[in-house]
Amino acid sequence: MAGLLQLVKASGGIEGLRSDPKTIRHLYFTDLAGAIILSAKPILEPSMDFSDFETHFGQPSTDTISHAQTFRARLYNFTNSHLSSIAGTALWGLRNITNLRDGFHEGTASPDTEFSTDIQFTDRVEVLERLVHQLWYVEDAQNEQHAIFRTFGWTCLIYIYTILRELPKELAINTMLAGRIKSTLESQMELNVLLATFNDLFLWEMFVCGRVADGRDKTFFASKATKILIIRKLEHQEGILDAAEAFLWPERHVSSTPSSGAVGGHDHEMTDD
């Protein structure tokens, strides 16, 4: 991190790089990645207004508003924490930016802008990444936030890197984040309560983490996912895949008729490299 500061200073500071927006974006990306690895705060002051979520995420749909409000209320009722509001906003960002990325692939939207100084897709993702930093970063070690926020924040980062930024899932930072999630959940005395109360959230987290985790950790995520699936009596493969995505897209979720033998297949998928 100190080396990054030296590079910025040698270039005349951030102000000296205003004419090169691409380099500035790379610096912020590196700063955020370093903060994640070191479990620290970013050291570079952002140049954009990151509090204007509608500008960066886009206007939320009726479904997104409803889902984010419900998620926020569930978290607050369970934790009584102000972080519930941040988590609800993060869910809005996850949904809208994912829809935008899907539009690029489907040809219904373009990542290109008229000017390099316009808001880019990477800027939108950066706003989301900075937002979830508040969920996982421990400001006060004597007053650590609830594990549900930390694990959600870290899972969002894995999703950001693998789905939104479309970076290789084999990146060491993804494996590291999955390891942090595993360690945090293993230390929770009330883990079974968490899995039962927020089974949609944790099923999504187990799938996201299971795809990037170290081989030694994959069994943990598979076993927790299987426990949730058994509780929900989901065994049919299509029902399992729907349920894994239902946290982000509950309006798309259609319950499937359970059938025997599919849970083992899911376990195998989660533990494969």
Overall description:
This protein is an all-alpha fold and 273 residues long. The chain folds into 2 domains: 1-49, no CATH class; 60-271. The chain has 13 helices and no strands. The protein has helices at 2-10, 21-38, 53-57, 62-79, 83-106, 121-136, 147-164, 172-186, 191-197, 199-210, 218-231, 237-245, 262-271. α7 crosses α10 (199-210) and α10 (199-210) packs antiparallel against α11 (218-231). The longest helix has 24 residues, at 83-106.
List keywords for this structure.
0% strand, mainly alpha, disordered C terminus, 64% helix, 273 residues, 13 helices
Short description:
With 273 residues, the chain is mainly α. It contains 13 helices and no strands.
Task: Outline the fold blueprint.
Blueprint: H1 2-10, H2 21-38, H3 53-57, H4 62-79, H5 83-106, H6 121-136, H7 147-164, H8 172-186, H9 191-197, H10 199-210, H11 218-231, H12 237-245, H13 262-271
Helix pairs in contact: 2-6, 4-5, 5-6, 5-7, 6-7, 7-8, 7-10, 9-10, 10-11, 11-13
